[in-house]
Amino acid sequence: MYDVAFAQRIPAPRALAKSGKPADNTSMVRSLTTLFLLLAIAMPANAVTSYSAMAGRLADLGSRSELVKVYNVGKATSGDRSIWLAAVRDPNVDALNTTRILVLCRQHGDEPVSTEAALGLLDRIGAGTAPGAREALKHTSLYIVPMVNPDGADALTRRNARGIDLNRDWGRFDGVETQAAYRVFKAVRPQFVIDMHSWDKEDPYRANCLEGPRDGSELGQAVRSLEERAKSEVGEGTGQPLSEIGYDRSTEGTLCHRFMFEQMRTPSLLFETTAGMDEGPEFTKRVDLARNMMLWMLRDTAANPDSWHRLASDANPPTPRPTFALGTPVDASGSLARQRERAGVRAPVAATPTREPFRLPRTVWWAFGMYAAVALCVVMLRNQSNDAGGIRIERDARGGISDYRAVYRQG
Ligand SMILES: [Zn+2]
After folding, report:
1. How many degrees, rounded to 5, is the angle at CA 52 between CA 48 and CA 58?
2. What is the CATH number of domain 51-342?
3. How far is the CA of 22 from the centre of ligand 1 (A)?
4. How far does residue 30's CA lie from ligand 1's centre (Å)?
5. How far is the centre of ligand 1, averaged over its atoms, from the C-alpha of 56 (Å)?
6. Separation of alpha carbons 68 and 86, rounded Å
7. How far apart are CA 48 and CA 280, in angstroms?
8. Tens digit of pLDDT for each residue in 150-193?
9. For the stretch 262-299, what's the b/e string if a residue is b when 16 or more beta carbons lie within 10 angstroms of its beta carbon?
10. If residue 295 lies in a helix (H) or strand (E), which one and from where to where?
């Protein structure tokens, strides 16, 4: 219980301060706590990009880069969010004469790595800072859907707003999101599809992985050789080894990459990073790996045209020609501009190369937090030891730091 009568006997702090008693270290506690709280609020997190912020960034890119065109390819289940496609092409090269790669990201809303990786790559291509990309685009075009499941992404749920697991929906197409992604596939008729994921908490391998077909066909062999090269050049090359998983035809065919290979006879791979939604350096490493994988595919087509040509020529032999029927690209004057306004994203002044903002590692912030907490404890303990002057403090559940203060000043 809080002793009201006792509290009333305690002089007001201001009067005590004037009385020339020893300096009070509770002000230090208060300053430290305030400082810590302010820093915690201002702490720059590796925040996951929201749907609106993504739409804003795409709008900016579409309006300022001649290489990136942005298309609205359908509405998500909620009707509030759209599915966007970024087509990365050299405007002076006929896309029909390039190797077309379709990159699908974030079918599972709680796997943000691929969206961040796609946006990072698009930013760099737009800014001209993706090494080798400009040259590679003479041979390759990239079609990237950075967020197939925007409702799930904003809710951070695996499934879409109707509870459909989109990566168990290929061939069924119950989800409007998978329908939209499939429309993109049919319009572009890519020679290669990669579906980007992260393990959830049930990560059985604790590893970054590629999954490809093991069916012994010529097409399967071609995909396998590409997989081996990715393993050595992206995985080992970046110090983040990629494991490989094979699947055969008896396994579930409603996953996007398996559907693509088995039903569409289109070479395809699944990419996974290790599990974890945590932010900080580990998250950044996963994003880097996923982005490197995308950039590697773009550059490798230019460096190894034969192997990609083999993939392309073996793919679904009487391939329907792509229609490229994607509608009109959206630029900053279109509906994306409104998205950007809503997201509070300002239009870029000039196409300046973007730089990574400096961020202190999260461990530093944690260390600081621990320091503040320890300092607080030390001061509180010292106050308690000052109680030895015969004054007994009764505290209530509200913590009662002001009561300590008053008593300490008395002592
Ligand atoms: Zn997934």
Report:
1. 90
2. 3.40.630.10
3. 61
4. 46
5. 24
6. 6
7. 11
8. 999 999 999 999 999 999 999 999 999 999 999 999 999 999 99
9. bebebbbbbbbbbbbeeebeebbbbbbbbbbbbbbbbb
10. helix 281-303
Tokens 């993504």 label which residue? 54
CA 390 distance to own-chain centroid: 58
- Contact, 153 vs 78, CB < 8 A? no
Question: Residue 92 Cα, ligand 1 centroid: separation in angstroms?
Answer: 36
Q: Report CA(108)–ligand 1 centroid distance (Å).
A: 5
Q: Per this entry, what is the length of the chain?
A: 411
Interval between CA 241 and ligand 1 midpoint (Å): 19
CA of 199 to the centre of ligand 1 (A): 6
Residue 11: the pLDDT is 44
CA 138: distance to chain centroid?
A: 28
Q: Which two tokens stand for residue 350?
A: 């000039």
Q: Which residues have C-beta within 8 Å of that of residue 124, sequence separation ≥ 6?
A: 130, 133, 354
Reference 152, options 53, 48, 78; nearest CA is 78
Beta bridge pairs of residue 69: 87
Question: What is the CA(25)–ligand 1 centre distance, in A?
Answer: 52
Q: Which SS3 state, helix, strand or coil, does residue 375 take? A: helix
User: Of 388, 376, 408, 402, which is closest to residue 32 (Cα–Cα)?
Assistant: 376
350 C-alpha to ligand 1 centroid (Å): 36
Kindly state the percentage of the chain with pLDDT values over 90.
51
pTM for the model stands at 0.73
CA 271 to centroid of ligand 1, rounded, Å: 9
DSSP state of 25: T
As a whole number of Å, the end-to-end CA separation of the chain is 22
* Span from the CA of 172 to the centroid of ligand 1 (angstroms): 18
Contact 257, 202 (CB under 8 A): no
CA 4/CA 62 separation, integer angstroms: 67
Integer Cα distance of 133 and 130 in angstroms:
6
Neighbours of 353 (CB within 10 A): 10
* Domain definitions of the chain by residue range: 14-43+361-407, 51-342
DSSP state letter for 330: B
